[in-house]
């Protein structure tokens, strides 16, 4: 506890539905590279990166200097009613990197706003408020994005401005499709989509919104190729595909720059956020011009793509590409992922180690079942912190440890974090 009892002050003025990590919450006061320091002076290896947001690490000189250059001009904000050079330059780069032909980009402040904008565009383009979404998904905390979030723990309202029909995710551990092998799960998922369209919709569906790897859902993902199989059906009906890349974008999965690329398909709309700002508020939606131009009235984002955040975004992209952080995510992620799989292979309490690149998860269950063990997960979570490692939690049942370190993670740091995690798991199982 800090000397001025910050926790008590937090509870006195902030809502109770804003969670704090750990039995004794942390105040982080400094950071450098992949490490952060708390108010008591203890340093931790950061394997969660502000929920996968400090993508290239803390206090990166190139990013700090780019932001400071903009601050020295005296212009922090101008609004998008004026030309913003950094915004145009970043939009050109994002459009090019997106893989979407004839792309346009609209900047927002967060992934929630990006997904909200994508839904606005899709429903206007199709003149329908019918949406397909995926079970166990998370897309944001606003009215519409909550409506397409398939995780009850994050659905804070039963009210919904959209008419939503739900698809199976194709995950391997639970659900109707889990009993099938990967190839059969894709076929079953397509059959599920066709049945949902025939029975739960009026036909003129606007879009399917889906995460290539479900973030809050515990890094669950269906088989590669699932999006392509879905899109064949969607194209028969003119339904748009939105790929929510808020957590999977910018090379985090290692094998691809965007999560959708594992499926051999190009979405109509792509949303991005988190890592591109490396802590500065920056997000957006990119899509084909004919789709993104479907908004029939004036609209803009007051702070979206402002001079400071786009200065950071351009510097982040420079650093990301110059240092091949996608390649690093693949190499270092393999050390971490393979190490976790090997260390937990004989443990009945570990149902699955999954994920791609530096987007990894460990799911805990009661031995001999797939019944979630949230209590064990809590013990592992706290033990990692005690060992000097910060990780995340997630999953539909709160029984998943999530790891999303900065993409600059070194091999030595991966092995250090791996050793702490393995010890935390073993000690927690024996507790």
Description:
Homotetramer. It is globular and about 60 Å long. It is of the alpha/beta class and 431 residues long. The chain is built from 13 helices and 15 strands. The model has no long low-confidence stretch (mean pLDDT 96). 38% of the residues lie in helices and 16% in strands. It starts with 5 loop residues before the first helix and ends with a helix. The strands form three sheets. A seven-stranded mixed β-sheet has the order 4-10-9-8-7-5-6, with helices on both faces. It has two domains: 6-61 and 325-430, Aspartate Aminotransferase, domain 1 (Alpha-Beta Complex), CATH 3.90.1150; 66-323, Aspartate Aminotransferase, domain 2.
Task: Kindly list the characteristics that best describe this protein.
alpha/beta, Aspartate Aminotransferase, domain 1, Aspartate Aminotransferase, domain 2, 2 domains, seven-stranded mixed sheet, four-stranded mixed sheet, 13 helices, 15 strands, 16% strand
Question: Could you give a quick summary of the protein structure above?
Answer:
The chain has 431 residues and is α/β, with parallel strands linked by helices. Helix content is 38%, strand content 16%. It is globular, with a radius of gyration of 21 Å.
Low-confidence stretches: none
Instruction: Please tell me what the overall shape is.
Output: globular
**Average of the residue pLDDT scores:** 96
Number of distinct beta strands? 15
Instruction: Enumerate the strands of the largest sheet in spatial order, edge to edge or round the barrel.
Output: 4-10-9-8-7-5-6
Helix content, binned percent: 25-40%
Name the helix and strand elements from N-terminus to C-terminus, one letter apiece.
HEEEHHHEHEHEHEHEEEHHHEEHEEEH
Spatial separation of the terminal alpha carbons: 26 Å
CATH fold assignment of the largest domain: Aspartate Aminotransferase, domain 2
Structural class: alpha/beta
Biggest sheet features: 7 strands, mixed
The CATH homologous superfamily of the largest domain corresponds to Type I PLP-dependent aspartate aminotransferase-like (Major domain)
Number of domains: 2
**Assigned CATH class of the largest domain:** Alpha Beta
CATH architecture of the largest domain: 3-Layer(aba) Sandwich
Subunit structure: Homotetramer.
Protein name: alanine--glyoxylate transaminase
InterPro entries: Aminotrans_3, PyrdxlP-dep_Trfase, PyrdxlP-dep_Trfase_major, PyrdxlP-dep_Trfase_small
Family: Belongs to the class-III pyridoxal-phosphate-dependent aminotransferase family.
